[in-house]
Amino acid sequence: SVAGAGGGTAAGAVGGIGTRGTGEKQLEIDRRIVSKRITELKKELAGIDSRRIREIGTRKEMFKICLVGYTNVGKSTLINALTGSDIYVADRLFATLDTRTRQWAIEGGHKVLLSDTVGFIRNLPHQLVASFKATLEEAVNADLLLHIVDVSSGNVESQAENAKKVLEEIGCKEKNILVVLNKADIVKSQSQFELLQTIYPDAICISAKTGMNLDLLKEKVLQIYAGGEVVLRVTADAADGRIQSFIKSSTTVLKQSFSDSTITMDIRLGKNQLSQLHRFKPVKIEEIEE
Question: Which of residues 195, 225, 255 is at a domain's end?
Fold first, then answer.
């Protein structure tokens, strides 16, 4: 792996047979190993690309949340903790290549899509950025980004800044971003931790591993998801199963009635969900008093 590319003999001239040429320096060997790893990653990602873009296109009707951040900050651990899934977790570079998406029930029957993404690194090679296009599409198309920061890292500030730069490069600068300070249970520098809380005053401090403050994270996400609530009377074709499925899974149904060809439902939903509702083109939508 790339993470282990610096191993081997001490720097200097080495000899031998096979992959190491006579007088070849350790740096040249390391470069070849890294180059080989990049080639492997590009081949793997090529097979992911078209499938990911197709899948993203089918999720337009659901609120999408994407976990982003530097590599090894605990994104996969967090999505497992929130959804009860078993996404592969490893302390190695690019352990997550493909984005994995799970449904997350946040409250009152509301369900959102939660996606894990490839970890960012400092000075990510441009050819690798191109290869990560499909996995990064999740971030570009998300309604909310959770920027996960590892507060136990000695390089936490530079890692957070590098992740922000990558987000800018892929066009996510203006996205709705919630900073999540992870691994707060194993903070090594209290002064650095307090500085981060000053830099990111709206951040949520959690531990994905122990479950600390995950309830606060869910509460904050629910607030963003709702964006303030509104009560509507929606009339739809009685045979339109798609809009009925969306309403029953993503809103609170207060009352419903049927006529010969239509169904009318009084619902409560977040203002941020209005655009999703309009995509289903109901017969009529009107705002009412509860």
Answer: 225
d(CA 58, CA 56): 5
- 239: how many CB neighbours lie within 10 A of its CB? 9
Q: What tokens were used for 196?
A: 């981060």
| Amino acid, res. 48 | I
List the chain pLDDT tens, one digit each, 290 residues: 344 444 444 444 444 445 555 456 788 888 888 888 877 776 666 655 555 544 545 455 678 899 998 888 998 899 989 988 765 454 444 444 455 788 888 876 677 888 887 776 655 555 555 556 656 777 888 889 999 999 999 899 989 998 888 888 888 888 899 999 999 999 988 988 999 999 999 999 999 999 999 999 999 998 888 787 889 999 999 999 999 998 988 888 999 999 989 999 999 988 878 888 998 999 999 999 87
- 13 and 23 Cβ atoms separated by less than 8 Å: yes
| Total structural domains within the chain | 2
- CATH code, domain with 253: 3.30.70.1150
User: In 10 A of CB 276, how many CB atoms?
Assistant: 18
Question: Rounded CA gap, 249 and 5, in Å?
Answer: 48
User: CA dist 239 to 174, 234, 235, Å?
Assistant: 39, 14, 12
Cα-based distances in Å from 74 to 26, 51, 98, 217? 32, 25, 16, 15
DSSP code of residue 119: P
Residue position matching structure tokens 């999740």 = 138
Residue span of the structural domain in which 135 resides: 56-225
Residues 264 and 179 in one domain: no
